[in-house]
Write the structure tokens for this entry.
Amino acid sequence: MKSKSRTSAGSADQITRRGEQAVKTGAQIVVDTLIEQGVETMFGYTGGVVLPLFDRLYDAPINFIVPRHEQGGCHMADAYARASGKVGVMLATSGPGACNLVTGLATAMMDSVPLVALTGQVRTELIGNDAFQEADTTGITRPVTKYNCIVKDVKDVARIIREAFYIASTGRPGPVLVDLPVDVQVTKCSTGGPAEMKLPGYRVRTKGHARQISTAAEAINKSKQPVLYVGGGVVSANASQELRALAEKAHLPVTMTLLGLGSYDQRRPESLDMLGMHGAAYANYAVQECDLLIAVGARFDDRVTGKVETFAPNAKIIHIDIDPASISKNVSVDIPVVGDAKVILGELVKEVEYRERKRWFNKIAEWKKKFAFRYDQDSSTIKPQFVVEELCRQTKSGAIVTTGVGQNQMWAAQFYKFIRPRQFISSGGLGTMGYGLPAAIGAQVAMPDVTVIDIDGDHSFNMTMTELATAVEHNLPINVCILNNGYMGMVRQWQELFYNKRYSKSYLSNPDYAVIARALGAVGITVDKKEEVPKAVKQMLAEKKPCVVDFRVEREENVWPMVPAGKSIDEMSGLDILERLI
Amino acid sequence: MKHIISALVENKPGVLAHVAGMFAARAFNIDSLVVGRTEDPQLSRMTIVVIGDDRVLEQVRKQLAKIVPVVKVQDFVGQPVVARDLMLIAISVPPEKRPEILSLIEMFRGKVVDISQKFVMVEISGPEAKIEAFINVCKPYGIKSVARTGTIAMPRHAKIEA
């Protein structure tokens, strides 16, 4: 990250040129360090022990977004980071403010998103006394952060914030939390030049081992039936170009995880789309029959591997990842290469050779034809897949898509065709319902000129819909498309398939979303006829205000194909349904 | 299999909680964990005894190394090391049994550090097996209480110099 030495206008403390001594409060040092780290936008919610910080932010040159709930703010900062590639910043007060960050931090942790969370803390001498709004923030957030710490001496503030940005954004990215007691924020300290980072235990290996790379290239050149399996690591390493170069030069089919979507243009013939539990049958078959699996920035998640003992049974496995602990964690790997995906793929491209692999590609083409994602286009009701296809068609595959969690997320992943990285923003690892709306806000703040669509479920939307007020306040033209089936759809699907249709507590009475949207100052549209879908999408995309479209979709539609829990990924249900729809 | 893992960590608050939390969160079993200062005031050494197969231990090492304030991780398995436990043990000994128990203590190179009408407190160090053996021979007399440190270990000098 480029450091910009700007000073905030009108600050009470005199700031002098770099290198000279200046006396500043801890709060001023925090704000100056944020600016130095290139922070232009941040999210946060005020409170008792962050008043000194908010006072310094009053006229700081930072675009500041206040959510309606800290969880929403944390998801906004997360999606801001995913859409822009920068570090997201979220500020919250002590106690309840900090506790409300936990879901957002865990979401960012599971999906390796660079995030810096700052929290206020009660005065140092009160810590441990069960003071008002005190919580053991570092204790509570330790398992859901890459690193966290409490600052007890104002002299350490600048160094620790620099370390937080460095740790969050390097290696396998992740959230870092810095807890700032209020007395540290108000204590003055004379500061000089940049404080050096002190991280003896933090090392990042970016360059891959040359011999391992050659071994991998050799295996690729020899392989008759290879598959590239790529995850979110390719997106966070900005390695899409190198990925494409490799797939084209060596002629390799590419399948993506949920978080990998966008890293490879799905319009290209090598794309096998998403694999896994609700992935494409052709991707799952290709993985099960391949003789070489080249995993890049992916972590062999159980939603991808299904029954792990029978995953890619005939394949030699190459695993390229920046996190050594990801290697051979779930599946044992034959050729590990630890390092940055961009660097390693760049090296690999030089050593691979083109192979035609005609039989392999023909076989894949047949699967693709037979088992394409399909739904009943002749249905008189609104099929949720139809809505997603229409969104993709009218936005020409160009929108940033965020999602809730469940069926809406899977249909978005299956039926929107992504063409560039950082285009699909979804809570993959943690599966956080309610992520879609705040994520759309964060993404729109990061990318003001791009159309942002939250493809959401009714129950996911229910969880964080209060953030619509935030979108209205900041005049963010986000588009919320609720695939409203009146159910927690994925839970209902499992209950239909595995619990004898006993729909236990998987539906709630929903409000009229269009009315709610209008009450909050957004545009609200209800669509209950199939033929109205294209027109409603068109109207939504033309709106300059935040817009909520409540699509009353087929209530008991299922996501197909599906790998039942504990099965191999080629033991999919629903293939007969796909074939019947040809 | 039992592995002795030695981790150099930054001497900062929260590090022990981070390490212990990681073991709990990932369902690794800690047999013993010892933390103490080192020759460098900035660093502490954690000696952790873990039981698990090669796959588990590979993850233990990698997950430990991933923790930001953990500076270095070594697994001493298959290396010549000196591994020692320290124990304080209070044994109930009526006066007539004293000569007998004192000779046992001597045999184990233990040291009597406190004595009263009914009890002797013994300080004893050595490999874990020796400590266990001493506890076993004391059992018939009646053990009042035991305090043990867990294992600390260091590779043999020849290896360090090489």
Remarks:
- The interface with chain A takes residues 9-10, 12-14, 17-18, 21-22, 25, 42, 55, 58-59, 62-63, 65-72 of chain B (CB under 8 Å).
- Strands of chain B lie at 2-10, 30-37, 43-51, 70-75, 81-92, 111-115, 119-126, 143-148, 152-155.
- Chain B has two domains: 2-75, 81-154.
- The domain at 2-75 of chain B is CATH 3.30.70.260 (Alpha-Beta Plaits).
